[in-house]
Amino acid sequence: MIKYVISAIITLVSINTLACEGHDHAKNESKKIEKCSDLQCVREKFDQITPKLVALIIERTKLQEEVADIKLGKNVGKALDEKRASEVVQKAKELARKDGASEEVVAIVGEVFEKMVAESAKYQQKYMDNKVNK
After folding, report:
1. Residues near 97 by Cβ (< 8 Å), separated by ≥ 6?
2. Among 1, 24, 25, 44, which residue carries the largest CB count within 10 Å?
3. In the chain, what are the helix, strand and coil shares in percent, each to the nearest 5?
């Protein structure tokens, strides 16, 4: 499931499929990327991406609760699995490379996923602690 979420985030973040109303676009025929000619157009594309990213983060958080419940059922008291966290970050970077991202963008993807995994582990641990202390 995490592979699907990572792939979806990378796909959604790609501006290639976004279009703006009422703006002229220059097409790069080799990649079919519509480029904006002004700042407002680019901002509209960002505005189209944001709700999709938020929805995926919420979906991922709900999955963290499922993971926490499973761990609690197996008497695992620690949310963070460092090996798994590293695997998630590496898979995200591999997907970015596979999608043709530059190494600079791959590094950004890595940093974003490191932060997301760390925050997810904090959320998951708090969720687990709250369930145990009820």
Report:
1. 106
2. 44
3. 70, 5, 20
User: At 26, is the secondary structure helix, strand, or coil?
Assistant: strand
- Cα separation, 99 vs 77, in Å, equals 37
Instruction: Judge contact between 117 and 83, C-beta under 8 A.
Output: no
Measured from the Cβ of residue 125, the count of other Cβ atoms closer than 10 Å reads 17
pTM: 0.72
Return per-residue pLDDT of the chain as tens, 134 residues.
455 455 555 554 554 455 566 655 444 443 455 789 999 999 999 999 999 999 999 999 999 999 999 999 999 989 999 999 999 999 999 999 999 999 999 999 999 999 999 999 999 999 999 999 98
Under 8 Å between Cβ of 80 and 67: no
Tokens linked to 101: 């991202």
C-alpha–C-alpha distance, residues 128 and 116, integer Å: 18
